[in-house]
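Hi Y.,

Following your request, here is the sequence exactly as I used it, all 329 residues.
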Amino acid sequence: MVKIRFDGSEYELSEDRSVLDGLLDQGIRMPYSCKSGTCQTCMVQADRDAGLDPKWQTGLKATDKARGYVLACQCRPVEGLALRSLVLADSTLPAEIVEKRPLGAGVMALHLRPLQDFTAFAGQYVTLFLGDDTGRSYSIANIPGEDGLLELHVRRIPGGRMSGWIHDDAAVGDRIMLRGPAGNCFYVNEAREEFPILLAGTGSGLAPLLGVARDALRQGHRGEITLIHGALRTEDLYFRAELTALAAAHTNFRYVPCVLEAGERDDVTAGSLDQVALGFLGEPRATRAYFCGAPEMVALLKRKAFLAGVASRNIFSDPFIPTATAAAA
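Below is the corresponding structure, written out as tokens. Let me know if you'd prefer a different format.
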């Protein structure tokens, strides 16, 4: 066992578990979500400015690293470690809900207006906070700079505190705190090349893919853009009319709805997402691939795309990782 300090109190934690798990076991309430170092919800600040393991800060912005911020789910107890909670007012900014719109398939479009200066790329994600101990991450589906709003797609998670509040209780005019942006799933084309773009994902993993596609088209990308949205059944797909209209308006954009269980009358492509997506991989060496959604599918797509010839530096992904407690339930 190792003694550490958290918010001024001393705790004995096992060296074999993360600081987050150790503190939760002792009844400490703190925000967390994925427990895998992806969402950054459990970020805390280390009082000591030396000896921090770089793994504890994986994915954090340089400014956050310089402040001594670490991820509690990646941090391991070491003797002399002192941590403190982040004051949400210091690490987040307020945003106002300006619209809620059901999209179908249990997904709600949430439009937020940040009430302070905020810069992000379409496809990145932000973390919303409900109270001091609940934070969840959602990807940006629109181009934030166009109207100053953030469009998030929130899938209802059974028993989910945040998604339940957004679907059932949140109202236009309500305020919520957000942190971010984070993530590398966004469009960049500094050399103005005409490379093909392959976008593939499941469920509300459509949101960042939609953001990337919208931004690429806005910037005049001339290469072929293919977006494949996968689901179990046709009724699990959403945003079909908007994506169909987007494809009709741009000759270089293709939308492919894909389901595992297709009926005879369903106007979709039948098959597993990985097989369908790789079928559109025409020029692997030139392709930029973006994969989002269920972690297992994202990992499979990344592996198969790499083996097919897509360079690892050209594969971008943000897997959807449900809250650890919700996933366990």
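The longest helix spans residues 295-308.

Thanks again,
Q.
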